[in-house]
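Entry, Tuesday afternoon. Goal for today is a structural model of the target with magnesium ion bound, before we commit to ordering more compound. Inputs were pasted exactly as handed over by J.K., no edits. I checked the ligand SMILES twice against the vendor sheet because last time a stereocentre got dropped in transcription.
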Amino acid sequence: MNILKFFTAGSVDDGKSTLIGRLLYDTDSILADQLEALQSSNRKNDDGTIDLAILTDGLRAEREQGITIDVAYKYFQTEKRKFIIADTPGHIQYTRNMVTGASTANLAIILIDARNSVVEQTIRHSYIVSLLGIKHVVVCINKMDMVDYSETVYNSIIEKYKVLAQQLKLEDVTYIPVSALKGDNVVQNSGNMEWYEGESLLHFLEQVDTDHLDRSQLARMPVQWVVRPQTDELHDYRGYAGRVLSGTFNLNDKVNVLPSGASSTIEKIEFFDEELDAAHAGESVIIHLKDDVDISRGDTIVNAAALPQESKLIEADLCWMDARALDTSIMYNIQHNSKVTKCKISEILHKVDINTLEKHAADEFKLNDIGRVIVKTADALAFDLYDDNRANGSAILVDSRTNLTVGALMFRAAVE
Amino acid sequence: MSTYNFDYLDELEAEAIHILREVAGQFEKPALLFSGGKDSITLVRLAEKAFRPGKFPFPLVHIDTGHNFEETITYRDKMVERIGEKLIIGSVQESIDQGKVVEQTGKNASRNALQTVTLLDTIAKHQFDACIGGARRDEEKARAKERIFSVRDEFGQWDPKRQRPELWNIYNGKIHKGENIRVFPISNWTELDVWNYIRREKIELPSIYFSHERDVITRNGQLMAASPFLNMDDEDVVFRKQVRFRTVGDMSCTAAVESEATLIDDIIAEISASKISERGARLDDKVSEAAMEDRKKGGYF
Ligand SMILES: Nc1nc2c(ncn2[C@@H]2O[C@H](COP(=O)(O)OP(=O)(O)O)[C@@H](O)[C@H]2O)c(=O)[nH]1
Ligand SMILES: [Mg+2]
């Protein structure tokens, strides 16, 4: 059994919270006392049935306003998988929350209200999915009960979406007609839509192959911590602790340590009381090298045969996440895995109108703006392109005045 | 390429270890808040996996309400001896004696709320800049929205509207003087995940997690261990019951559940079938739908 992380996107009232509530409810993931709280809540559907959306609308402000303003994480499992859901808000002013929810997801569910078809928000949400490099997309055409479960309506919507998917280069898109409120095709296949021959949403989620642990050749491990017991019996022990971002390290592999460029060979791989032959993407281990090289937190151990790029000038997509606009005249901290260095945004190449996907020149970047910039860093970063290696191709910007996380960066190219 | 078996528990474990090492790398004076409950016991195991054969780069901190299950304290002391790490105790009794907090009165009096003051005092005294805790997002709706690195001001307050975006696996631990960060490495674990992990790792637990016979009373529809810490009167009828506890907190507010589960397998079977979420066994959450959010804003863990 493995884990699938997905996030849901849709406009306000498309039914995201209801859909998640339905998934939890129909897989028996709601516990008795929560159910009791639901039943005694005075928020009810028009027909008096319990409102499943309350399950995810967690903060008081959200309950009062009846909307989702922050990412809520929900968990459920079936016999086949453990699921982690990020329920993200759809309003444009919460774009940054959606980017946050999307950043750890392997799959996106995009909701479309069958009555409204593809709308501006659908374009925006799909753009974020492509920007964040989410490989699998499920488009749920929701509220089918309100269009008489019509195949014609469904078909016209998916024809429209296919054009968008092509434009955004979304390769793996699955379409499912559902009613989150009534439960059609969410967990069980629906008797109301005999014309639909595909799977229910849950069934699809249970078997979709996400290969979310990168098995590429790009073996990378940022060093987080150097383990040095300095006891009598472990006097010379020096282990580099970190989590393998991508690829595989095997015993005796030739590796380089960046940024110094020192080369060595893997002598030993430890995991607590075990010695391993290999460390794979996703695993947190301790690596020992044959040579005595100077390594500290912020350095990256990489496969010598597949080196990352190294540059102080990087072209990147930026999503701005702070109320205070980007200031191209000041320095920010950039955090790339365990490495932190100073940087400036030296140039804004363009901004994207995320409702129309048009690019245009800009000289300012405000909350929720997305576009292409050049980042100039104090120390060179050892990175991969985001599309090749999400984990080593992303970074955050931190404003040293407020310590807030103000930007998300996806590396697109090293600037020569 | 070699194949490997990396299942959901391995992935949760690796994520938690990564988070613990980020704490070690990013902070000057971190601490691990140890309650004696299964979640913090799990954290200790994860810290062993993150830092051995080295020492933990942080002490354990226990906020002692003085209303403990004896079994928890016995367990704590044995465990600290086994792992050979430093334990710091913050005492709620001391806060009461110093007049910093006032003991609650009445039937539902509990020291649970007083803990917050002792915790904040302990943080200030030792100047901890990060406190690792065992909270999970599946426990409660407000927690479902909390970040893994969650900033608290010097009053310990959590502001849900000012949370930092937390992207990919990058954790921003930068803070101003006086602030600290609460870190939740097992955010993405469910109660069942924790139990499955404890079973897999063969981790020993305090005995109160398992079925035993005990004197109890009924309070607000729940079974409470009869103890000197509970304000009881003539209406309270003490009787013996086969019970166990699903969380380990202050004796005055931790409810027991009727159970015959004596082995971990029994507990896992019981939870899988059970329809009472874990926090349902804590009286203090029942107060209102927004109870947890309010307490978190006020600096409760
Ligand atoms: N008829 C119908 N109503 C739905 C369906 N899904 C959601 N709704 C209703 O649409 C409204 C908004 O749903 P909610 O889940 O809060 O939307 P969110 O803003 O995307 O989270 C609520 O009144 C739901 O009951 C559906 O499939 N059919
Ligand atoms: Mg919602």
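The mean pLDDT of chain A is 90.
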